[in-house]
Write a structure and sequence with these properties.
single chain, mainly alpha
């Protein structure tokens, strides 16, 4: 059993994790975060140039690693949320398209379209849940 992503667990509104992830994403795209990263890089370079004790070198490397892991987690979370939103929009467009053609066929007294393209479109709705 695999754990569900925050996107799949959530309800209609944003949870605390999603709000925190959005705030962190906003911060990491700010000039302030860029300056913090430059500070870490400067600290790392300074430790090497000054030939300080290994303890300081490990501290600098640990800070850079922690920032790297944070950015990786934020990037993956952002990717999942964007993909989920895109899939929901595509499903809504496909459903509206099919519904429109079924209504047009009903108004004209005919049967809804039964062609291959319509069957594949109907089958594609919510396909991402099966993958």
């Amino acid at each position: 059993m695999s754990p569900k992503s925050p996107v799949q667990r959530g309800g209609p509104g944003r949870g605390r994790f999603e709000q925190l992830a959005q705030a962190a994403s906003d911060f990491t795209s700010s000039p302030t975060f860029f300056l913090v990263c430059l500070g870490f890089i400067g600290f790392f370079a300074g430790v090497h140039v000054a030939h300080l004790d290994t303890h300081w070198l490990l501290l600098a490397a640990g800070c850079m690693t922690a920032v790297n892991l944070l950015l990786l987690a934020l990037l993956k979370n952002s990717e999942l949320r964007a993909e989920h939103a895109l899939q929901r929009k595509l499903d809504a467009i496909a459903a509206a398209f099919l519904e429109h053609y079924e209504e047009v066929a009903a108004l004209q007294g005919g049967e809804p379209p039964k062609g291959r393209a319509f069957r594949e479109l109907r089958r594609a709705i919510r396909l991402e849940e099966e993958i």
